[in-house]
Design a protein that fits this description.
The structure holds 2 protein chains of 2 kinds.
Chain A (H helix, E strand, L loop, with lengths): L4 E3 L2 E4 L5 E6 L6 E7 L6 E7 L2 E5 L6 E5 L5 E5 L8 E8 L7 E2 L3 E5 L1
Parallel strand pairs in A: 2-11
Antiparallel strand pairs in A: 1-3, 3-8, 4-5, 4-9, 5-6, 7-8, 9-10, 9-11
Chain B lengths: L2 E5 L2 E5 L4 E8 L3 E9 L6 E6 L5 E4 L2 E5 L3 E6 L8 E9 L10 E2 L3 E6 L1
Parallel strand pairs in B: 2-11
Antiparallel strand pairs in B: 1-3, 3-8, 4-5, 4-9, 6-7, 7-8, 9-10, 9-11
The chains are: A mainly beta, B mainly beta.
Chain lengths: 112, 114
Amino acid sequence: DAGVTQSPTHLIKTRGQQVTLRCSPKSGHDTVSWYQQALGQGPQFIFQYYEEEERQRGNFPDRFSGHQFPNYSSELNVNALLLGDSALYLCASSPTGGEKLFFGSGTQLSVL
Amino acid sequence: EDQVTQSPEALRLQEGESSSLNCSYTVSGLRGLFWYRQDPGKGPEFLFTLYSAGEEKEKERLKATLTKKESFLHITAPKPEDSATYLCAVRTNAGGTSYGKLTFGQGTILTVHP
């Protein structure tokens, strides 16, 4: 049983560009959350998707947007990249009502 | 605003030297306190969930405890393979029944030397 898979694993972009990160949840999971983890910090909640809608959002600007597809996979889009967006982006999935999150290995984004 | 603070930031132990990691929290309406382990280049891996003061959970050399203000992760006779970053996170009643949002501490980097 594959766990949470994320792609790509690494990405290098320049300031002002746009990026799309992808996530496939664990089998049987329908809820996807995205987190940003800066170097030396704990993950910070970006938003959560359930039934193809954004259910809750953290303190991130509108440059961060997402989408969930009917097969429960999800995308995270970041527009107008800033140097400060360099971080590890983690996707986590859970089943409906499940309290335990299962994390992917993340996408390491570097903005130059 | 929910706050989670972990200490120490880094801890170096000799193999077999037991110790504890601390997680202090200030939240309104705790729904659960979570411990995760994170290896370099990997996502966090779930260890424990604690729900109420006085609760304890164990897994191999790890034991997690919870009070109304803090949680401890006790590591007994650690081995080099226990080296990792240990993250504490809380879920609260804020925002209704949101099962996704966790507020994390900054983590404790544990290094166990052979």
